[in-house]
Amino acid sequence: MTKTGTIYEAIGGFNTIDQLVTAFYKRVGNHPKLTPIFPDDLTETARKQRLFLTQFFGGPKWYTEDRGQPMMRRRHLPFEITPERRDAWLACMDAALTEADIEEPYRSAIFEKLTMTAHHMMNTPD
């Protein structure tokens, strides 16, 4: 993936994932398109996201150890994920990547992988 091994290692490991997720959920919790499908208290959601992104970008398999296989599409089926919500989610992530100061080429690689994942999560038309 990278000269240093994984994206997770290249961006600085868990501390950077933590900064990214904190910046992301600060935005999600205030986004009018996203708040209807997220809980009022985002603590547990953010914890699971930290575990998932750690594993997704090549770090320890904490998500699988804690929650089992990711099966992200299945886990997201109960929520109406429209193209508009996908775009809102991606906009929050884009801003969070900037706030977390993730440098190129990792920023683009992360956003590309998350964009593909976000497209896969859609399950409802606008």
What does this molecule look like?
With 126 residues, this protein is mostly helical. The protein has one domain: Globin-like (Orthogonal Bundle). 62% of the residues lie in helices and 0% in strands. The protein is built from 7 helices and no strands. Helix 2 crosses helix 3, helix 2 packs across helix 6 and helix 6 runs antiparallel to helix 7 (106-121). The model has no long low-confidence stretch (mean pLDDT 95).
Which terms would index this structure?
single chain; 126 residues; mainly alpha; Globin-like; 0% strand; globular; metal-binding
Topology:
Layout (H helix, E strand, L loop, with lengths): L6 H5 L2 H15 L14 H14 L5 H6 L4 H5 L6 H17 L6 H16 L5
Helix pairs in contact: 2-3, 2-6, 6-7
Compact overview of the structure:
The protein has 126 residues and is an all-alpha fold. The chain is built from 7 helices and no strands. Heme binds at residue 119.
So what's the CATH class?
Answer: Mainly Alpha
Quick one: biggest sheet?
none
The span between the termini is 35 Å
Q: What radius of gyration results from the CA coordinates?
A: 14 Å
Number of domains: 1
Helix tally equals: 7
Low-pLDDT ranges: none
The mean pLDDT is 95
Q: What is the CATH H-level superfamily?
A: Globins
Helix content: 55-70%
| Level-2 CATH architecture | Orthogonal Bundle
Estimate the strand proportion.
under 5%
What is CATH's topology name?
Globin-like
Give me the secondary-structure category: mainly alpha
Number of strands: 0
Shape: globular
